[in-house]
């Protein structure tokens, strides 16, 4: 049984496969487009399946044997019809669900640009996080310096006030002592 499918966007299908039979799907592809196929097989002895992917020149590109599911990517090298074939390796009926996805070359460039932009965004985020951490550090350091400055100013004020008080007390006591010392003495001419 051969089915031709023409896809322009993501397409997901399910189909049955009788035991011992082969199902081939034709997919029209363009050169440099990325083709991705994902498939899942369900049913009795679901791993008894063979999948093959052929180029338009009938060259085998990918194959898998006894895998109940798979995900393959291939960049198309030729324009034309690619084939994906599923073959049951036993006599039991199986249900195959598959998904074809095409990404054109300009979409690939967009994806690469998006990956590059995502990497640059991560780097910018890390840089901004570093700047933010530095700002928090600077802010904390500035607050600590402000607290230390206020504490030092208070201590200096009390120290200055204490020194001024001590000087005033010393001056007053010196004046008192000197006036007491010279109190009974006369400083005029003695005749």
UniProtKB/TrEMBL annotation:
Species for this entry: Paramecium sonneborni
Annotated Pfam families: EMP24_GP25L
One Gene Ontology term, aspect cellular component: membrane
GOLD domain sequence ranges: 12-183
Membrane topology qualifier: Single-pass type I membrane protein
Spans traversing the lipid bilayer: 156-177
Subcellular location(s) of the protein: Membrane
Signal peptide bounds: 1-16
Stated family: Belongs to the EMP24/GP25L family.
Descriptive protein name: GOLD domain-containing protein
Keywords: Membrane, Signal, Transmembrane, Transmembrane helix
